[in-house]
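Final report, Chapter 2: Outcomes

The project's central promise was a pipeline that accepts a single protein chain and returns its three-dimensional structure in a standardized token representation, suitable for archiving and comparison. That pipeline is now operational. To close this chapter, we reproduce one record exactly as it appears in the project archive, with the input sequence first and the structure output second.
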Amino acid sequence: MFKKFTNGCVYIMNKYLPDAFIFAIVLTIITFIGGVTLTDQTPFQMIIHWAGPGGFFGLLSFTMQMVLVLVLGSAMAQARVFKNLLTKIAKAAKTPVRGIMITAFVSVVACWINWGFGLVIGALLAKEIAREVKGVDYRLLIATAYSGFVVWHGGISGSIPLQVANEGALSTVAPSIFDAAFTIPTNQTIFSPMNLFISGIIIFGLPFVCKAMMPDKEHTVEVNPEMLIEKEVPAEDSSNFTPADKMERSRILWIITLIMGFAYIIYNFTKVGLNLSLDFVNFIFMFVGILLHGNLRKYIDAITEAASSAAGIIMQFPFYAGIMGMMTGANPETGLSLAAVVSNAFVNISTVKTFPLFTFWSAGIVNFFVPSGGGQWAVQAPIMMPAGDILGVAPAKTAMAIAWGDAWTNMIQPFWALPALAIAGLSARDIMGYCVITLLFSGIIISAGFLIF
């Protein structure tokens, strides 16, 4: 029965889910219509929200960060030392079942530690397992690698729990309730019993859920071996090197670059520990990549090859920024935005018992249109944090409900899957059927966690 349901989800997504770019266009149109009809704004006002300041080009900095996650992670993986490490892990799989379960566990743990690291490492490991293990479904393998991302906002790189631990974060969104000195420490959010319960069950349960999704031999789709063949790099003939060629391969320049980079990496770890920003993760990827490639010329070539896969991110992220602009753009007379309409609908039917659960569900809906942790907080915190306070719900619980909602529906939102899909050479429709199962599994666990605690 479970396999039939999974196969049905895969069939529906394969047949009806359009390309990720078309999906973004459809969401744009839905948001535009919703803004006009539910917030009493004119079509032209919605177009201004879409394309004006804070709209279409509002994610340029973040877009570049995500391009670097993909390019720097892929370039690092091209180094022989890194490939050998992934190969050793992949060979330990030996069977399709082990391959799926190892991929799920490595991905979900890595994403809980740091989401940027987990997104890349999970996809790279899955691709390597596809090379080494015969008979494994490649679509499920990549979906499994991406599924680990569902825990990121409950992990130690979660942007909302880290943000509310800083002074001033809560007073900014609800100044009438929280003063500038009020903070929520991580022992009430990331390391609270409720969050550890939710995270723990997903981390240890996801490998078994992914195993249960494995199709029978008749429905298994193995990767085309030609997709995984990597170009052989010919040996260099140093006798014909020009002075410029020798400079590009200079050990002195390579060492100086590494000393500067790793000096800062060590310094930053001593200052912030494992609280790694996305910029710092990219910084680590870059300098570990330079180290593993052995000289600057090889690293330049690896970056050039990896950059060709970033087209989807570059093209789609501006449209998501426009969607966010329309979701948060308020009617100038009433101050009502589309995101506020969704949030208020759930607040109006909540009790002290159900409020965290409904906050989680509403955050999951908003995340379709505002797929960014920081954007999610900016949109929902000014509504949900005061409402929770009036009902007597602990601020930490409300904040984590927003955080988990932001992570939850990423499973069926192609926005965050783009780096993994680019590495794997697949489209969103190839993996989303399996990700629906992860959505349902994690949704039940998270909902139960908010009701039990």
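Archive annotation: DSSP finds 22 helices and no strands in the chain.
This record, like all others produced under the grant, will remain available to the consortium after the project formally closes.
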